[in-house]
Amino acid sequence: MFDKFGEMESYTQINELATNLKAEGDIESLKQMAAENGIDTDICDAFIQGDIPELTDAMSAAIGKIEIEEAELKHKEEIISDWINYIKASCMDSEDVAKAVRMKGKSLNGVIAYILTWSFKNAYAVDEDIVKAAKVSGRVKMGIPGMGTAKRLIKEYYTGGKNEKK
Questions:
Q1: What is the residue extent of each domain of the chain?
Q2: How many angstroms separate the Cα of 70 from the Cα of each of 22, 31, 154?
Q3: Above 80 in pLDDT, residue 165?
């Protein structure tokens, strides 16, 4: 995943390396580093041409990391796709969350496991009438969080629940 340049802990670290690689004229490595961090080729080209002053910002760096991790995850579950979209939305809504997503040790697998742990702990018995209507026999439990709870769990996982800076 982060094979050549390693997992970068912040968008500023990405920008610092990008600036150094550009100054050294090592455009190929700059492009590889951008791709490894999920940064769009057009954005990288604009940075190389001098059209933008930095390669990335907190939100773009976070979403890039999520997309790289998602490609490795190879999931099929629609609810996980929803959770990933909630993570991206949280990065757009909060710079604190976006910065926290880039932190080493925080990962898409980790946040999904955090949400699943909550789901198992909060599973409840589904009403008998619903189970019968679904033509299922036996005891059925469910614990999938709604969007609001999932977003709260995402923030808790990535930021430890700390208050956002205003």
A1: 1-56, 75-159
A2: 28, 20, 15
A3: no
Count of Cβ atoms closer than 10 Å to residue 84 Cβ: 20
Using alpha carbons, list the distances in angstroms from residue 134 to 71, 77, 127, 131, 138.
34, 20, 11, 5, 11
Per the structure block, which two tokens stand in for 162?
A: 């700390």
Residue 125 forms beta bridges with which residues? 141
Question: Cα–Cα–Cα angle for 65, 106, 95, nearest 5°?
Answer: 65
pTM: 0.86
* Sequence-ordered list of residues with C-beta below 8 angstroms from that of 38, at least 6 positions apart, any chain: 63, 64, 65, 66, 67, 68
Q: What's the confidence (pLDDT) of residue 161?
A: 66
Q: Let me know: does 147 contact 81? Beta carbons within 8 Å.
A: no
What amino acid is encoded at 88 in this protein?
Answer: K
Asked if 48 and 27 touch (Cβ cutoff 8 Å), the reply is yes
Eight-class DSSP state of 65: H
Kindly tell me the sign of the dihedral angle through the C-alpha atoms of 112, 117, 122, 128: positive
Q: What is the C-alpha to C-alpha distance for residues 70 and 76, in angstroms, rounded to an integer?
A: 11
